[in-house]
Amino acid sequence: MESLVTIEWLADHLSEPDLRVFDCSRLLDMRIGQEKSGRPAYDREHIPEAAFLDLEDDLSDPEAEISYTPLPAGALAAAFGRLGIGDESRVVLYDNSGSMWAAWAWWLLRSVGFDRAALLTGGVAEWRDAGHPVTDQTTGYPPASLTAAPRPGALADKDEVLAATGDPTVRIIDVLPEESYQGLFAMYDRPGHIASAINEPMAFIDDGGFSLKSTEQIQSGLGGSPDQRAITYCGGGIAASASAFAMVRAGYTDVAIYPGSLEEWTKDPDLPMVAGPDPT
Length: 280
What we know:
Layout (H helix, E strand, L loop, with lengths): L3 E2 L1 H7 L5 E5 L2 E4 L4 E4 L1 H6 L5 E3 L2 H5 L13 H10 L7 E5 L5 H12 L5 E4 L3 H6 L28 H7 L6 E4 L3 H5 L10 E2 L3 E2 L3 E4 L2 E4 L2 H8 L7 E4 L4 H12 L5 E3 L3 H5 L7 E2 L6
Parallel strand pairs: 1-7, 2-5, 2-6, 6-7, 8-10, 8-13, 13-14
Antiparallel strand pairs: 3-4, 9-15, 11-12
Helix pairs in contact: 5-10
């Protein structure tokens, strides 16, 4: 199974017994400017056979101060197992926001050594528009056993990122909009970007849904070698995972996400931030 599958592919394979499909949606509450669980949208309609995966409640450390801090690898594998993902499962992930949220679940599966997952090129709306039925019937899979085989370097912490700011062999990649990178507005405690980071988003949500830059565009934008260490970040790790997904599909072999991203980094005034355009 490819790491990116189409609506048509899923329709053809939906009934296969080893396939696990998950709706990973989150909803933006405009009243308070925060996102929340997408469970209400799932309960209204979703792709048949899809279970709901709550990125916060199911996969995040409840004791952590930073949003979406991943559980330790063993606990994370156990959490996926409780959702019904086993060593021999195949997994398709989607959401209501162009697969950005689903990419975070895909990356966490990758971080525990699971390589049988894919993102769907669309969500419920695209599924329905293609003429396929939707349902409001809840799906749950029986628990399974997923072996934790942590992939070294898939997740970078604050200390690694700080060291990388002075290491020219490591690329730090800010995937937020250019205006945020330059410090023209601040979504977090301090404006700008992590020192030495370049600005190179590689995954987008547009009218056509989820789109990735081509391998040629990514290589041209990043330069260097595909085996050079790279760390992506955004505000809270979600958009960073979509761009990291694009890099892996383009053949980059040593890619990490910084889960804490600017939410964590900007809280510490001793960590270097820079405002201004991308020097590259």
